[in-house]
From TrEMBL:
Ranges for domain Aminoglycoside phosphotransferase: 58-281
Reaction catalyzed: (5R)-5-hydroxy-L-lysine + GTP = (5R)-5-phosphooxy-L-lysine + GDP + H(+)
Protein source organism: Lipotes vexillifer
Coiled coil: none
GO cellular-component term (any): cytoplasm
UniProt protein name: Hydroxylysine kinase
Keyword annotations from UniProtKB, A to Z: Cytoplasm, Kinase, Transferase
Amino acid sequence: MSSGGGQQSQALTKPTFSEVQASALVESVFGLKVSKIQPLPSYDDQNFHVCILRTKDTTDGPNEYVLKISNSESSKTPDLIEVQSHIIIFLRVAGFPTASVCRTKEDNLTSLISVDSGSEIKSYLVRLLTYLPGRPIAEIPISPQLLYEIGRVAAKLDKTLEKFHHPKLSSLHRENFIWNLKNVPLLEKYLYALGQNRNREIVEQVVQLFKDEVMTKLSHFRECINHGDLNDHNILIESSKSTFGDAVYQVSGILDFDDMSYGYYVFEVAITIMYMMIESKTPIQVGGHVLAGFESVVPLTPVERDALFLLVCSRFCQSLVLAAYSCQLYPENKEYLMITAKTGWKHLQQMFDMGQKAVEEIWFETAKSYESEISM
């Protein structure tokens, strides 16, 4: 959902390219002629859905793409964006449904574009990815089978990235990146965006519990590279008919690798559970199905399991606090920024009111039921 480490410095750095300007970029940087272009929703970058005209040179390739224009803060970290692009390529080769990264006319993965805004010159990194088919899972009723599959994909992705190597891999150690779960205490400087209310009180309690109970255990968690944003708009699905004639969904696309950073396996499953709860009519039940899928690939240790409840609450706090803050920066983008807030505060309060023990009992019993099914 975000691409920058320091939110406050990004007040005026979101790109504002028009459709005509974006079309010109596709042609000048990538050598493709645009037939149709339209903006896509985004957090603090700018994305366009691009259709290209067929020519004698492009008869065999895809004709739909996503043009990604990074905000000017993220554009100052080209090594990070290069590593993210190579990860997308690596995962596609490994069989994951990620996009293909298109090369520029100069055979690079990115291009740095400078724009004179009058008062200063700003630079933006530009990339072009193939457009993936499928529907965001936010648009369909989500079943236990699909939740299990999403948990499994999340674990396989992190596990596969153990084999990824790149000379600039250290760029994924993003120490003050606001969206990394270990940086939950950094939320304190944005709490003013909530005003004084029950929501703020809950966030303050979660942050304090995180400091007391999670920060002290980080050294016991197993480290890995996290996607970090497997939300209900970044996972695409397609349906097929089962032998019984009903629809079976499978993951057909994984989007938005901009929040990738070094984290822990338990972070990935916590983030995934939180986002899968957003659209669910039975949000508390979601965690067990996602956890079962994740643990079919990477079983959590007892200390990781013990932290899961608080990590899910913490991700709710990150998303809700930063959405409220970002709405003050970009009021014109409020509808997109507040997607999580529509149900998120209600779900966080419900988890907090039920308490860790009651929620864990539901999650762990549900996950256990999959073990007995597999062993039968």
